[in-house]
Each structure stands twice: as structure tokens, then as C-alpha cells.
Amino acid sequence: MDRQGTVTVRAVGDHALLLEVDSGPQVAALYARLLAERARGGLGGATEIVPAARTVLLDGLPRPAELAGRLGSWRVAGDAPPEGPLIEVPTVYDGADLAAVAAHWGVTPAQAVALHSGIEYRVAFCGFAPGFGYLTGLPADRAVPRRATPRAAVPPGAVAVAGEYTGVYPRSSPGGWQLLGRTDLVLWDADREPPALLRPGARVRFVPVPGPVTG
After folding, report:
1. pTM of structure
2. Angle formed by the axes of helices 109-117 and 98-105, to 10°?
3. Cβ neighbours for 127, distance < 8 A, ≥ 6 positions apart
4. What per-residue string of b and e applies to 106-123 under the rule 16 or more CB within 10 Å gives b?
5. Closest to 119 measured CA to CA, from 91, 157, 155, 82
6. Are strands 86-91 and 203-208 parallel, antiparallel or unpaired?
7. What is the mean pLDDT of the chain?
8. Which of 79, 173, 187, 208 has the fewest CB atoms inside 10 Å of its own CB, making it the most exposed?
């Protein structure tokens, strides 16, 4: 558990505040508290609450200065935030980097699949591309370096790891993450409400489905 920490508040333009904390778990706790505060009408009309690795952005504030002092007095701890919805991601573990990741972990590819799929992840924040969620839960000793040379194109639905994060590419794009497998789930659909399948706070499990995984 993280010790309690203060919230540093910085003005961003005329209608936004950036709240900074010390760790990812504190971001999750702060984000959950802000959502609850907004539901009670206590955030002065904030239209957007956007978490990142160590910050949360509040946007759409008519009078941000009035809110800054109160938020600066908050203290947050890295306690487990309220549980979000569970999303299961059916995954064929046949990624081009599966063997390399398994070797990095000192296990076989089949054991790597069991390790990765045996964790319940949490969407910490979104970024990079619409619908791309940064999922925490991979233990620190399983952190994986990015590829030395990024790929020019990663296919949509690719399940990948980099550092201590897991992610799923919502569309084809360049990328340097290590590819473990793929899913057919649609991560971003502009005609869906909300468009992003993986939203901050959601819990995620990768469910292996039959594929050419051996070892």
C-alpha cells in the first residue's frame, strides 16, 4: 500500500487543472474520488476527468481557481479503488514476440501464456491512440523492454506488453511493444457509447483461445 500523498495542483489554460500525485495507484484512487465528487456536484462543472501515469486532468471548469485550493488540500493513498466492470478479452497467443518474451521471463511460451493470462489487469489510463488502454497488473519483475526497432505497422487487435504495461492495439499503427497475441474484439467504435471498450478503472482478463501455442 502506498503512503498517503498530497495532490499538487497546476493551472492549465483558462478552464483546466492538472492534478499530480506520486504513483499509479494514487492516480487510480484520485480518479475514483474525483468521479464520485463530480457525481455529487462538487467539481464545479468539470466536463472531462482524464487520468494519466501520474496525473489527472480536469477540464471544462468555469472557475478553476475556486476549486484549486480545495483539491490541493486532498490527500490520497494507493488503496485499491472501487472495482470497475470486468472485461474478458479472448486472445490467440501466437504473437511474433511470444518466444522472446518467454525467454526474457525464463519460461516456455506455454508458461508465458499462463503467466500473462493468469493476471487480472486494470485500465490505468488511455492514450497513444483512441481506444488504447494502458493496463497495469504485470508484476515489476515481469517488465519487458520495448523492441529496439519499432514495427512500421502493428495489426489491430494485437495484444502486447512493454515495461510493466499490457495493451491492445485498437487499429493498425507503428509500435514498439512486444506482441504476445491477438483478439477480435473491437476496441474503438465511434458509433458505440462509450466508443472505447477499455476505459480507466475497468478490470481486464485475457482468456486464451485455441491457437498455435506450443512449448
Report:
1. 0.81
2. 80
3. 52, 134
4. eeebeebbebbbebebbb
5. 91
6. parallel
7. 91
8. 79
